[in-house]
Amino acid sequence: MSGSSAVSGTAPCRFAHYFVICGIDTETGLEPDELAALYQWLEADRQGRDPDAAATGENFEQSPLKRTFKSKVLARYPENVDWNPFDQDAVNMLCMPKGLSFRTQADQRDPQFHSFIITKEDGSRTYGFVHTFYEEVTSPQICSAMQTLYQMHNAEHASANPTSSSSSSSSSMDSLVSSLDEADSPTSSSSSASSRAAGGYDSSRDTLYVSKALCLITPMPFMHACRRFLSQLYKAVTAATAPPLPLESYVYNILYEVPLPAPGRSLKFHGMYEPIVCQRPGLGELPLADFPLAEVFSLLGVENLVQVFTCTLLEMQILLYSQDYQQLMTVAEGITTLLFPFQWQHVYVPILPASLLHFLDAPVPYLMGLQSKEGTDRSKLELPQEANLCFVDIDNHYIELPEDFPQFPNKIEVIQELTEVLLSFGLSVSTGAPPRTRSSPNSTPSTPGRERKTTALRQLEDDGRNGNLGGAELAVLELLQGNATLERLQALTKRTGVTVARVDALRAGVKAQSSKGQGNRTAAEEEELKNAKLNVQLREVFASRFTTMFADYEAFVIQSAPDLESWLTNREQMHNFDKASFLSDQPEPYLPFLSHFIETQMFATFIDNKIMSQWEEKEPLLRVFDARIDKARLYNVRAPSLRSSSYQRCSILKESAQAIEQRLIKIDHTAIHPHLLDMKIGQGKYEQGFFPKLQADVLNTGPTNNKWSHRTATTQRRKDRHRQQTEHLNLDNDLKEKYMQEARSLGKNLRQPKLSDLSPAVIAQTNWKFVEGLLKECRMKTKRMLVEKMGREAVELGHGEANITGLEENTLIASLCDLLERIWSHGLQVKQGKSALWSHLLHYQAREEKLEQQQTESPVPHIPERRKSDCSIALPSLRVSLIQDMRHIQSMSEIKTDVGRARAWIRLSLEKKLLSQHFKQLLSRQALTKKLYKRYAFLRCEEEKEQFLFHLLSLNAVDYFCFTSVFTTIMIPYRVVIIPIKKLSNAMTTSNPWVCVSGELGDSGIMQIPKNVLEMTFDCQNLGKLTTAQLGHDNAGLLAKWLVDCVMVRNEITGHTYRFPCGRWLGKGVDDGSLERVLIGELVVPCGEEDSGRGCRTPPLQRSPSQTRRISITSLSGRGSKPTSAQIQEAIGEALNNIVKHFHKPEKERGSLTVLLCGENSLVAALEQFFHHGFKSARLFQKTVFVWDFVEKAVTYMESADQMGDLQETTEPLGMTCQSLCHYVNAINSTPRNIGKDGKFQLLVCLGARDRLLPQWLPLLVECPVVLRMYEDMALLRDRTTVNSLIGVLETLHDFPITLEASLVKGIDL
C-alpha cells in the first residue's frame, strides 16, 4: 500500500495533519522579503512614482537586524495530505508573519507561541499552532552577509543627509507599514547612527541568532494540547540531555497514531515528558472552542467585549490591534465562538501579514488582526476607512466604536450575568477603558498617569498580561501577604471604598484550587480544567440569549421551493424569512438591534441552512440550536414570556461545566505511546539548542495497519456514500457548489485573502472582485428598498398587505449609507477625515465655490427665472444644487461629525429624489476623482459606476421622508403662496389675511401675510409632513370678500410642496359666511417636464388618479351631478374603512388622521353627501340653505321641546344625548372663530367621532320634525333602514382612540 493512500485512509480522524518547520534557508542565504518589495511597489504606484524604480533599490536606511528577510518552509511531514492540500505560501506567511528576524546575544530571545487559521474558499478552516524560538546561525556565509549589510548600512548612514531620510509621506499605508516594522527589537529606532553602528553586528564579536518556527497543522483548534506538545518538543531540543526517544518518534506519534477524540469523549496522548489531555464536546453541546475566553474578557473588559460582539453581529469592520499575535488570535476566535448559532461570513484574518496590508482597503465587512509596533500610537495609524470601523486596541484595553449602532438587547443584564460567572471562578472583572465612539476624534488613548494608580494594584485589577496563570497568581498572593506596605495599601483602598476585588478573588481562587487539587492533577491541568469550564459557561450565557431571542424563528421561515435545485436556482429572488412578522412579534426594546441583525449575511446563511436542512443533513450548529429550542419548548419556558423583554438567565451553566469536568477526570481513550521507529541509527544526531534535520522517509508515510484508522476510515466511507446519495438529489456537485457560491453573495468567495502569489496582478484581481461585489450589493440593496417601499404603497392603494415597518426602512437606509461609505473609501489615495464620502464632497464644494467666485467677478446678464409649470402656480422653482444641500447640512448644529453629515446628506438627497443626480454631478468632475482615487477604485471603473448610478436612480420611484422624519428638531425655512381665483374675485383684498401651517410635529402659529403680496417665507422648527393650513382674514375694508383657489406651502430644504385646496370664499355674507377655513394638505407630485431630469416617471403615489377635488357640495348640487344613494353609502363605507386601516398600522407609520377625517373622500365629506341627499337647499330668490342650518333648527326645536316638557317622557339616556348634542352645537356656535357653516358641520362631525357620540346623535336628528320640512321624501335621512345601517357602521369607530389636531378644535370650549 503506497504512502499516500495509507495516509488518506486514516485521513480525517487524525489529530494533526502536518508538522512544519520554517526558518532560514542556508542554501539561498539572506533574501530581502520580496513581499516587502511588492509593498514598496504598491506604495510607489499609489503615490504616482515609478513603481519599478522603487522596487529595485534595497532599503539601506533600516538597520539590517530590523529588516525583513524571507523565511522558507524548511520541511513538512508528510509531503501532502489529499483532503487538506498543503498551502506552502500561506503556512510560511502565517508561521512567520514578519519574515525572519535576527538577534544577537545582547537581545532578548524568549520563545513565543502563536496560533493562526487558514480559511479555505468553501469556508472550512484549518488551524496552525506555532512555537518560535531563536537558533544560533552556524553558516559562515550568512554571518558574513549580515556583516556586509551592516557595513553598507553604516556607509549609507554616514553619507546620507539625515533630513532626507526622514522625509515623511502623507500616505495612509506608510504609517501602517512603519508601525509594523520589526517590533521585537529592544533597541529604539531613534538612536543616532553612531550608536546604532556600535549596537549593530560584528561577526568577530557577536553571536548571530535567527528565528525558527515549529508548527502543527490540525483540523480542530486543540490549542492547549498543541501548545503543550510544542513546548515539550522545544524543551527536548534545548535540554542538556537528549530526550528518551529520537524526536521522529514523537512527531510520528502525533501525526499518525493520535486520533481526534470522538465527539463527547476525551483523549490522552504522550509528549516527551508528560501526558497531554484534550476533550471534544458531544453532539448536543456547543462546538469546540479552546482559546481562553477569560483572557479575552480580562484584555477588553466585559462591557467592551459585549460592544465588540455587537459590532461583529452587525457585520461591521472589526480591526484588532496588538503587539502579540497570540492575543490577536485569542480575541478573534473568542468573539467568533460567541456567535453560536451564527457564523462570521466575511473576510476573517486574525493575523494579517505585513504584505497583505492593502486588505485593510477592502470595502467589505471584515474581522482582521494587525500587529502593532512597540511604542506606536493609535493616532498614527491611518486606516483607509473608519466610518463603520470598530477598532479594538487590545494592549491598551480600549475600543473605538462606530457612530450609531443599536445596543445588544438586555445589555446591562448580560454584562451582570457574565461578571458573576467570572467572579465565581475567582476572576475580577476590569471594565477596560470606556469605549470611545468616533464622535470624539481628539480623545487620546488612556494616559499612563490616569490609568495606573500603582503598577502592582493595576496588575492585580486586570491581570491581562499573564493570562491569569495559576502560578503567577500564587506568586502575587505571596507577594501581597509578605509585603506590609501593600497590605496597608489594600486596607486603605478598602476604607476609601476602592475595591481591589482582584486580591480577594485571588485568595478565593487559590483556596479553591488548593482544595481542589485532588485526583493528582498538576497545576497546569487544574488551570486547563478551570479554563475549559469557564469558557463553556461564558459561551452558554450568550447561547441562551439567542435561544430566547430566536425561540420562534422557525415559524417565520418561508419554505417556498419544492426541491433543493429549484431553491438554489431562485435563491436571489426568494424571500426566505418573514422579517416584518418576526419583528412585530418581538419586544419593543429589542427592535433596533434585531431589525439590523436580520439583514446580515450571517443571519441569511443561518436561514439558508435551515431551509436546506429539509433536503440534506442539518448543519451541526443548527442541529444543536434547534435541539435547544425544542428542549426549551418542552419545558414551556417561552409561552408566558412571549414579547416580554424580561431577562432570563442561563439555566444550564452547572451541567455544561460538569460534562467537561467528567470527561477530563475520566479519560475515555489513550493513544499509542511514542515508540522507536524503524530508522537508520545515528542520523539526526542530538545537539543542544539546535533542531535536527528529521528523517523524511520515516515521517512521510503513516502506518498501514492501525486499528482505529481502519475502523474509522470504513465508517467515514460509509458516511460519505450515504451523504452523497442524500445530499445532492440528482444535483451535480459542481453545479451545487456554483449555486451556493452565487447564493451566498460576496462574503464567501472573499472569506480569506489568497496568501500566496501576491503579484500586482493578483491584487488587481482581488480589487476587481471587490468592485463586482460592491455593485452586486448595491443592486440587492436598492432592489430590497424598492420592493419594501412599493409593497407598502401598494397597500395604501388597497393591494395586499404591507410588510415593512418604519424601523425596517430606517435599517435599510442606514445600510445603504454604510454601503456608500464603503464604496467611497475603496481605493482612496490619501485618507482625510473619518468619512470618505463627506471628504469628497468637501473637495467638490471647495472647487465649485472657487469657480463661483470667479464667475461673480465677471458679471453675467441676469436671466429671469423660469416659472414652474401649472402644477405649482406662483412658486418659483427650487434650484437643484448639490452645494446648496451640503450647506443645509453644514448649518445643522445638531450634527457633530463628518460621518453624521454624510448620512444626513444622503437622507436629504434620497428624500429629494436627487441621490443619483447628485452623485452623477459629483463624479462628473473627473480630475477631482483622479486626484482622490487610485486606478482600481470603484469610482474609477466607468461601467460599474454607470450601473451604480442607475441602481440609485431606481429609488426615485418611491417617496422617502427619511430626512424630515429623523431630524425633527432642526429649523426649516418654509415658503407660503396664496392663490386666489382672479376671474371671479378681487386678486387683492383690503382685509389683513393670516395663515397658520400645521404638520405632524407641530404648527407654525398664526402669521400675518403682508397685504397684497400673498407670499411669505418663515423659519420654523421642523413641522414634519404638513397636514393642515388655517387661512383667514379680519374682514376689514371695502373689498373684504375673497375667493381663494388654494394655498401652496413648500419646505425650502427638502423641496416638498404641499397644496391646500380651498376653492371657496372667505367673507361675511358670501358662501357660508366663513372668515377662516381649515384646509387639508396634499403632497404635490412634481410634474412631468420638471421631473424628467430626475428620471422618475411613475404615476403619483399619493392618491388614485381618478379622484377629483371635492368642491363644495352645495355648488355641486346646483350642477346636476348629484351622487346616487348607492355611491353615497359606498363613500361612507370607504371613509370608515380607511380610518380602521389607519389604526391597524404601527403607530410610527400611520400618517395623518386629519386627512381621513376632513380631506377628500373623508368621513366629513361622505356624511356631508349623506345629509345633502334629498336636501331642499336651493330656493328661488332666497339664500342657499346649508346642512348646518338644519342642525341648528333641529337643536332649537329640541331645546324648546325640552323647555315645554315634551322630552320628559323619553328615557334618561336619550335625554342626555339630546343635551349633549345641544351643548356641542351651542359651543361650536359660540366659538370666537369665524369658521362658516360648513366648517361648523365639519367640526361637529370630528368632535362626535372623537367623543363617540355620532351614532347617538343621528336618531335624534332623524326623529326631529324639522326633517319633514327640509328633506324630500326620498332622502336617505328619511329611510329608516339606511339610517340604522349608518349608525351600525359608525359604531365601529368606538374601538379607536381618535385624537384631533389642534388646528381643528382651536377655540372650542366644551
UniProtKB/TrEMBL annotation:
Gene3D superfamilies on file: 1.20.58.900, 3.30.450.200, 3.40.50.11500, PLAT/LH2 domain (2.60.60.20)
Recorded GO MF terms: guanyl-nucleotide exchange factor activity; small GTPase binding
Span of domain PLAT: 972-1080
The entry's keywords: Guanine-nucleotide releasing factor, Membrane, Repeat
Biased composition (Low complexity): 164-202, 434-448
UDENN domain ranges (all copies): 53-617
Major place of residence: membrane
UniProt-annotated stretches for the region Disordered: 156-203, 432-453, 702-725
Ranges of biased composition (kind: Polar residues): 702-715
Subcellular location: Membrane
One Gene Ontology cellular component: membrane
Keyword set includes Membrane: yes
Domain of life per record: Eukaryota
Segments forming domain RUN: 807-968, 1154-1305
Pfam families assigned: dDENN, DENN, PLAT, RUN, uDENN
Family: Belongs to the RAB6IP1 family.
Name of the featured protein: DENN domain-containing protein 5B isoform X1
Species name: Parambassis ranga (Indian glassy fish)
